[in-house]
């Protein structure tokens, strides 16, 4: 995947004294321990420091590096604590768009699986039964449109497991377009590399201080099919 750099100012969707909501472009990690690697957390801290604010960017949730979509950062410990509570108690709602190879048998469905990381690799798999290392994974999807063997799904995520959406969909024969890890059909598309067609496009939560519902939408960018 091609590396991207970005001016964080161009990706900010909303900001106040407590939170900063922004778009994460595909290919940019939320966090990184590698020196010299551009990551979103560092970009937010640099942006805040440049404006004379405390360089605090509390990471509340993450997206895989190739996934694009909406991320919320807390700008202080108070906001971080409240948003983390909402996240852990399932009060933060996350909706995704995914373009998949294959047409689902059902227009909508609830998928419940046990997921387990594969030792020695950055991969996960569905297990037939619960194991000492597996974790419950739950999502719901509905089909928004279909076109020439490809379907666009809206996905509601209830748990946040490693590669969860990618693994659960691939396990049922509808891997995400552009997924080099789980889609055997992954290939170049009309001479351009097909990025992972997965976007966290809607995020809603209660403001940590104002206590009002906050809802944000950001449609996919790049060569994302059917949007």
From TrEMBL:
It comes from Candidatus Blautia merdavium. It catalyses: a uridine in RNA = a pseudouridine in RNA. It holds the Pfam family PseudoU_synth_2. Coiled coil: none annotated. One of its GO terms (biological process) is enzyme-directed rRNA pseudouridine synthesis. This is RNA pseudouridylate synthase. InterPro entries: PsdUridine_synth_cat_dom_sf (IPR020103), PsdUridine_synth_RsuA/RluA (IPR006145), RluA_PseudoU_synthase (IPR050188). Belongs to the pseudouridine synthase RluA family. SUPFAM superfamilies: Pseudouridine synthase (SSF55120). Residues 19-171 form the Pseudouridine synthase RsuA/RluA-like domain. GO terms for molecular function: catalytic activity, acting on RNA; pseudouridine synthase activity; RNA binding. CDD domains: PseudoU_synth_RluA_like (cd02869). It comes from the Bacteria.
């Amino acid at each position: 995947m091609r590396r991207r750099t970005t001016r964080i100012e161009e990706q900010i969707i909303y900001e106040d004294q407590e939170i900063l909501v922004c778009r994460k472009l595909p290919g940019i990690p939320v966090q990184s321990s590698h020196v010299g690697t551009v990551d979103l957390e560092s970009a937010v801290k640099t942006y805040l420091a440049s404006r004379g604010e405390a360089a605090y960017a509390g990471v509340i949730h993450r997206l895989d590096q190739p996934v694009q979509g909406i991320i919320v950062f807390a700008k202080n410990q108070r906001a971080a604590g409240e948003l983390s509570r909402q996240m852990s108690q399932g009060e933060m709602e996350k909706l995704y768009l995914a373009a998949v190879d294959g047409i689902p048998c059902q227009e909508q469905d609830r998928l419940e699986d046990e997921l387990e990381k594969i030792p020695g690799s950055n991969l996960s798999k569905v297990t037939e039964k619960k194991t000492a290392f597996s974790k419950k994974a739950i999502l719901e999807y509905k089909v928004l449109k279909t076109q020439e063997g490809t379907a666009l799904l809206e996905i509601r995520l209830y748990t946040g497991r490693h590669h969860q959406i990618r693994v659960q969909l691939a396990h049922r024969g509808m891997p995400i377009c552009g997924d080099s890890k789980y889609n055997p059909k992954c290939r170049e598309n009309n001479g351009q590399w097909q990025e992972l067609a997965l976007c966290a496009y809607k995020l809603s939560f209660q403001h940590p201080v104002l206590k009002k519902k906050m809802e944000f939408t950001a449609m996919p960018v790049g060569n994302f099919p059917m949007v």
